[in-house]
Amino acid sequence: MITVSSKDFLQIPIEDYIISADKVAHVQLGNNAEHALLVLTKTGYSSIPVLDVKYRLQGLISTQQITDEILGLEHIEYERLPSLKVDDIMKTDLPVIHIKEKFQKGLDLLVNNPYVCVVDDERTFLGILTRRVILKQMKKYLYQTQESEV
Ligand code: AMP
């Protein structure tokens, strides 16, 4: 059996492991919070990317950020949802990974994030790298290494 060394494994390009942009639920700048909450609830994801018209990554929006924003003293002010823009609620300070990066960089970022957005030089959104995908690859690698040692 051919096995890869752990050093080589960490140098594998992430490109092969991303979930491509066309399969990732997202919202656009200018969308209102009601629409974002609808997408988040329907897809079941806790956060999704916010893109501009040129498909460049601008931020991430989560259910928690939206509910935080409409949390009144006495009740949740759902009536404010249509007038709130995702632009004003989204998180803009977010980790990103360049499409040409290697597995090691992805692994480092995914320790503290369930997923990271993948971009090119122009910050065009190309997809996401998730903890699940990385863990699957690591599992495969570890099992192969174990088998080759027996
Ligand atoms: P997973 O590792 O598959 O559980 O995904 C971790 C997180 O990545 C999810 O909670 C979502 O926020 C995000 N995510 C995964 N797949 C998608 C997708 N197809 N569209 C949007 N977000 C996604």
From TrEMBL:
Gene3D superfamilies tied to this protein: CBS-domain (3.10.580.10)
A Pfam family recorded for this sequence: CBS
Keyword terms: CBS domain
UniProt keyword Ubl conjugation present: no
SUPFAM superfamilies per UniProt: CBS-domain pair
Domain CBS, first and last residues per copy: 22-71, 86-138
Keyword Ubl conjugation recorded: no
Record's protein name: Cyclic-di-AMP-binding protein CbpB
Native source organism of the sequence: Psychrobacillus mangrovi
